[in-house]
Amino acid sequence: MSDISAKLPAAQDEDDRPRPPKGIGPMQRRESRLAYLMLAPTFLIVLAIVLGPLLANFWISVKPVGLADLRPPSVLINERVRGGPENPGDAATLEYRLRNSTQDKEIRAVMLEDRIPDGFSVTSVPEVCTLTDDLLSCDLGTVPGKWRERLKVEGTVDQAFLDTEDPEDIHAAVVSGDADNILTNFDFTLENFARVFDNDEFWSVLRVTFYYTIFGTGGALVMGLFAAQLLHTSFKGRGFLRGLFLFPYVSPVIAVAFTWLVLFDPFSGTVNALVTKMGVADQAINFFGQRSLDLSLFGLTIEFPLALSTVIAFEAWRYFPLSFLFILARMQSMNTDVYEAAEMDGATPLQQFWYISLPQLMGILSVLFLLRFIWTFNKFDDIFLLTGGNAGTRTLTVDVYEQGFALSNLGAGAAVAVVVFVVLVAFATLFLTFSPKEEGL
Amino acid sequence: MLACILIALACGAVWGAVSMLVTGVTLTLVTGQVAVPAVGAAAIAGALQALWLVWSVKGSSARSQSSLTGFFIAFIVLMVLTMAMPFSLPLSVMPVWQAVALVLSLGAMMYANAACLRGIALGAMRRYDQEVVLIRVLKGIGFVFFTIIVALPFYVMVMTSLKSQQALLANPLDLSIDIGQGIAGLFRSYVELFTQYDFGTYLLVSTVVSVATVILTLLFSVPGAYAVSRLRFPGRAMLSRSVLLIYMVPAIVLVIPLYTVFSQLGLRNSLTGLLIVYPATTIPVALYMLQGYFRGLPAELEEAGLMDGLSRIGVILKITLPLSLPALASVSLYVFMIAWNEFLFAFMFLDDPDIFTLSRGIVALNSSEVPRQHLMAGAVIATVPVLVIFLWFERFLVQGLTAGSVKG
């Protein structure tokens, strides 16, 4: 050992010995450049549409911005010919009506520019305006909210003017002005977050989100595992059933969500008609509209969260095909020798499942749990379409919509979105730390 | 011995109840007459039949004869217990339907019992055989359960879309097709959707948006995936891993900033806006799926191409892409499905009915003024194309779904 290490420096001393190239050679550099070039479009669009908005969301969450603020304050203008000139030489007035579009925001350096129509000889202009050749420009300075103004340019008309239809519209008047855009200025507020956390409902929303995520994920996984056991052995019609089982996942969410609504409708739904006519329940059950159902079991009254459970059932129904597919693929790739050996040793079918199949499936199950957990947590469409977040089914993602768009407070919506993102990052780190490494997806 | 009897009884009771319940509910939905299945009586009939089956195996070898006897045992027990009204309907009401349902129910009971108790004879039973029966029963229930929960909503969707408003309100249980109203009457909702609600336009817009998304996604992700899988560059390992992390970002977090920025840029209520957002959300997963496939292709082929004087672009176009057609097909289908089914951005961005996608158009139908059968007809219109495409290319799609990662 020491022998070799003693020899090494000596070997390097010989100068004319060929050495492997160090660093990045020109060919390697060319390859890297090509790779970056090929990745640049993807990188740019992801930056613009995913990473950019992610950062922008943090920005908006500390801004007092509502839906109405998306239209920046501006001066609205309307131009008219007044005085009703009929013959050449009649006096007429060009009237500009100006108005600040907002109630409370000032607009600075407001300038009006317009070209006087042909055939209109100007006799007088308002004080704030100047006329050079036929170019009218008016400096209106800073205007407050609710501001209105009329500017009148007096003059006489000639025949050409009268012959033209709507002569004032040939050159449209242009108004310019600077106003604060609430999205780009540096006013910050923590009010959005205060509003989110002070709300009593927030904690119940958080709780509902976790129930939905955990039971929805678990339900889909268990159903997928069960379905995979059914289709593992080959039989006639297996391909057909496999295709059928994938239907809920492949169909548009909008179609299946509305179908469930129709199916479970309290008045005209098939399920409720069945349940009442067959004598299972006395009256129709409003599966998606009723917050809780009192069940008495052995004298104990349990409040069963009905709407939330139905929504969770939908989640499990819609996404079991995905788990089913992955678990089935894993099972088909398992080695059958070990089952033969177990059979020889007298292991019963349940023992084989518990001690041989399940341990082999653990990897894919935990990866699926991880992915489905995060995706269920992110899910918005399903609950929004089924209940709109009412009847105790509002999750964080639905709350983003509720705050941002239903209540028109974009800032508060963005604040909830920040909460969503933070929880998500926490999960992802947790999962990535503890998840098994061997089964990569 | 006792265990054997108990297991046979339990198995038979389960199948008696299940077969009766399923046929009773099916009869109700097909005819519209409320047929309350006598589940309890059927359970007893099934249990006795199962007992007969395990007992008869011992002595006689003629299996078909014992099956026939079992069938009649169940029939007689059921008829006696329900006083000849297995569906709580007098026999004069729809005698043919009732008879068919009864035969089907008893046949299913017989078949299921025989299949579950195959090879089981009355006598001491090993734990192994007990579990075999248990698993057979569980699997059978699983088949019935999954088939019903998947098929029923789709059946209801199609049947509701073919009904008239009055028929729906009069009897929600009647999901039969009323042929009496003729073809035009049957498809009235569809005709109205296409003539009065512009569903032709929505269909066209959805198709254009989905196909354009597929093309854009492939244009972006093919070079990217090739670079990640074949070329060496600093940051490659990190990049291929972070691609999936991008996919974990929830759409709802992006929707507020995108809404804000697109409103200011005038891109919000436009298909251009959608065609920027859709590819951006599908490119990462397409890239991930494709790079997995590219990695599996033999690099020697490409090296040979390079030696023979092809440029990199030439290698990709002439060697890599032709070899990866299956992967391209599955990625395309998958991206098409995502774009076609997408709801959130279409809902938030589009206000103008001229450029509604199908998802957006169907949401607009969900009001109290529009009858339910129109809503369901819209759902069928949105579902059929994607299901047809899916069934056509199922093999590719399943490979693609399991090979790479998938969005939920």
Automatic annotation (TrEMBL), chain B:
InterPro entries: BP-dep_ABC_trans_perm, MetI-like, MetI-like_sf
Cellular component terms (Gene Ontology): plasma membrane
Entry-linked PROSITE patterns: ABC_TM1
Keyword Zinc recorded: no
SUPFAM superfamilies, per the entry: MetI-like
Cellular compartments annotated: Cell membrane
Topology versus the membrane: Multi-pass membrane protein
Any Pfam family matching the protein: BPD_transp_1
Keywords: Cell membrane, Membrane, Transmembrane, Transmembrane helix, Transport
Origin: domain of life: Bacteria
Transmembrane regions: 34-55, 67-87, 99-121, 133-156, 199-222, 243-262, 274-294, 315-340, 375-393
Segments forming a coiled coil: none
ABC transmembrane type-1 domain mapped to chain residues: 203-393
Gene Ontology terms: biological process: transmembrane transport
Family: Belongs to the binding-protein-dependent transport system permease family.
Full protein name: Carbohydrate ABC transporter permease
Species for this entry: Roseibium limicola
